[in-house]
Write a structure and sequence with these properties.
12% strand; single chain; alpha/beta; 3 helices; 5 strands; 5-stranded mixed β-sheet; 184 residues
Length: 184
C-alpha cells in the first residue's frame, strides 16, 4: 500500500464532542501504524502528528467520535467507518468515524482498524484486527443502585397526583408507586 498523502508526516485531528478524552487512545493507534503497521504497507518512516485546538484546520485526516452512520453498503450498525483512498490518494481530508461507549482497549482497536482503512488496508487482509468480526467490549452501564443519590438526602418524599384516577381503580393505582419506590 502506498502512503495516500505522499507526505512523511501526517497531521491528524480529533473531533470529539464528548466529555471523554481520546487523545492517548488515538496516539497509541497512530503509533502502531508508525511502527508495527509498517509490515503491512510499502511506506517507511511514516509519522503521525496529533493536532489540537485551532490546528485542526491543517489536518490531513480527522478522527471523529460519536454516532457512526451507515458505512458504505453495510446494513449493520458499524462501530467505525473510514474511507479508502481512491486512486491511491485522497481528494479531500478524510474523516474516520468512531463509535463511543467502548472500553479503552476496544476503542483503540476500532481506531487502529479505521486508520488502517485510511491507509488502504482492507478487511480481508492481515493484521487480524482489520477483520470486522473482532470482539469488542462496551463500557459498563450504571444502574440506579450504582449511581449517586442526586437529592443528597436519605429520605425522598414523592407527591403523586391521583385526582384523574377513576374511583374503582384508586386503591390498585395507589399501590403501584409504593411498589416501584420500594424497589429503590
Amino acid at each position: 500500500y502506498n502512503n495516500p498523502w505522499n507526505e512523511q508526516t501526517i497531521h491528524v485531528a480529533i473531533d470529539n464532542p464528548t466529555d471523554r478524552d481520546y487523545r492517548a487512545i488515538v496516539r497509541q493507534a497512530l503509533r502502531y501504524w508508525e511502527t508495527d503497521g509498517r509490515q503491512w504497507a510499502d511506506w517507511t518512516d511514516l509519522e503521525f502528528t496529533l493536532l489540537t485546538g485551532a490546528d485542526t484546520a491543517e489536518a490531513d485526516a480527522v478522527i471523529r467520535f460519536g454516532a457512526v452512520r451507515q458505512c458504505g453498503g453495510d446494513a449493520t450498525a458499524p462501530v467505525g467507518c473510514a474511507p479508502y483512498p481512491t486512486g491511491g490518494a485522497f481528494e479531500r481530508t478524510p474523516t474516520a468515524e468512531i463509535s463511543t461507549g467502548f472500553t479503552n482497549a476496544s476503542t483503540q482497536t476500532i481506531v487502529r482498524h479505521e486508520i488502517g482503512h485510511l491507509l488502504g488496508v482492507e478487511h480481508a487482509q492481515t493484521p487480524a484486527f482489520m477483520r470486522p468480526e473482532v470482539a469488542l467490549q462496551t463500557l459498563p452501564r450504571l444502574d440506579a443502585v450504582n449511581r449517586t443519590n442526586p437529592w443528597a438526602q436519605e429520605t425522598l418524599r414523592v407527591y403523586i397526583d391521583d385526582s384523574a384516577v377513576p374511583q374503582p381503580l384508586e386503591e390498585t393505582v395507589s399501590k403501584q408507586p409504593d411498589h416501584a419506590l420500594g424497589h429503590y
